[in-house]
Design goal:
The protein has about 575 residues and is α/β, with parallel strands linked by helices. The chain is about 35% helix and about 10% strand. The protein is built from 17 helices and eleven strands. The strands form two sheets. Strands 1-2-4-3-5-6-9-10-11 form a nine-stranded mixed beta sheet, sandwiched between helices. A two-stranded antiparallel ribbon has the order 7-8. The longest helix has 24 residues.
Amino acid sequence: MRPARARTRARIRAATCAAALAAALSTAPAAATAPTTPAPGEGVRTVAAPGEGMRTGLAPAPAQGIRTGPAPAQGIRTGPAPAQGIRTGPGPARQGLRWGDCAEKPVPDGMRCATLTVPLDHDHPAKGTTRVALAKLPATAPARGRRAGSLLLNYGGPGAPGIAYLAADPALFAKLNERYDLIAFDPRGVGLSDPVSCGGVQAADSGAGTGDPGDPATQLAALRAEVRQCERHSGRVLQYIGTVHVAHDLDDIRRALGEEKLDYLGFSYGTRLGAVYAALYPENTGRMVLDGVDSLADSLTEQALASARGQQRALDHFLTWCAHQQDCVYGTNTRTAKERVNALVARLDEHPMTGTGGTPFTGDDAVLAIGSALYDKASWPDLAAALGRAEREGDPAGLEGLLAPAEPAPAEPAATGTPSQVPADNASAAITAVNCADDPDRSNDKADPSVIAKEVGDLGPRFREVSEIFGPRQLMTVLACYGRPAGTDFIRRIDHPGAPRMLLVGTRGDPATPYEWTEETARRLGSAVVVDHKGEGHTGYPSSACVRGYVDGFLIDGRLPAGTRACPAGE
């Protein structure tokens, strides 16, 4: 099983209102003081795009909607404010872990589970506690060599339940499991760890506002109402769900496991978490591998644009591949193939096909299906067949099949018949909450709605230029953090934190975390060796034996080459 597809799977609720707001732009009155389209590095900033990882958030500007100016890059400030969640004193006393049966069912033979209690706020332990669920697969062949200790895994998201992922496919890490105890965890607010929820109510359906649903003021009111719903259904953990808090939890997990150093393998969003841990605890960082590397410092606009650009690049690669296959519906001309995909999405926007059960299948559904298939080159034949069926027969069933959940299902009900502990909307609620907690910029919710609408609209041409189908969907997410408290700026300030050497893996055809982010994060960390995977899909470890060789060699034996190393496509 691949790392979490939350970047394409989780439909961030704010996108519903943002899409309606975008539709209202053509009729919204322009404000006299509305700014022009921001320059790169300014204006709307995103941290993780909903639908593609939620790079969202509209940065506030003085007296209007959008703050301008790039994020500082002068490194990590000493003595950060306690409100940023940076632990300044010694950690709590070590807790013992009581391993027992797992609530997640079914689980592999030998998997045991435990719960660790951690402070809600590590700087102010008196504020209360929350629970972090853990799972362990003991090393299978430690006698073949010295047991390596514990290897902590994070599958990404944010919002991916690590326990369910490890239970679903432990074979991916079989070689590592010979020497390591594999440790999965559900981060705070996720899965079995006091999960957050927004009550399962879409913002557009929350009853906020009684005016014209196409009116910007109505849509922004709906976003604010959804924030209140999330607060009502999530409890106190929602205020303390950001990556900095989770990184402190990682160190508590390390201590509870009795490990002197944290050995860690993180995918996608898990690379952001690993980088933050290394910045907070360089002296406790052991062998660390980050695969599918997230950005730490790009402006939010540039991150959203990079996400759309990465998706379009992956689609172009797919269409080139398709042109060399028999019976490709778009023939052998890749330029016209791109135009025909764009035309299909446009037609579905205007005239949806009839999907399963008579439900409409729209352009948004098609883009989500295409984006999901681009995560894994093994899905390309299915995507080619699905597009052929839609184009030739007007039948979206193949594309609908690509939307089937790729993530593990929530924990099954216990034998007593009690319902699952995990709310159905936990993934989407968590991805929004975490990314907004990691984002210090906000739209000015005191600004006139027409001003905000124009600011979003002015960005449209830049996003459409990057990708006619993916660009507008990225733009639709820029208001996902509207009405939420501003998050920490700690992540943007990471700059050569003094962590030991680590291994970063970037994939050239990655549709979710563009290779450029691997290079940027390597520069930021200042201690990274890069594996340049020339293949396709999101992350390299699951699909490339060459990548697995470098990763396993480093984690098990400490072998880390100097400089950048390349892994050819298909190897």
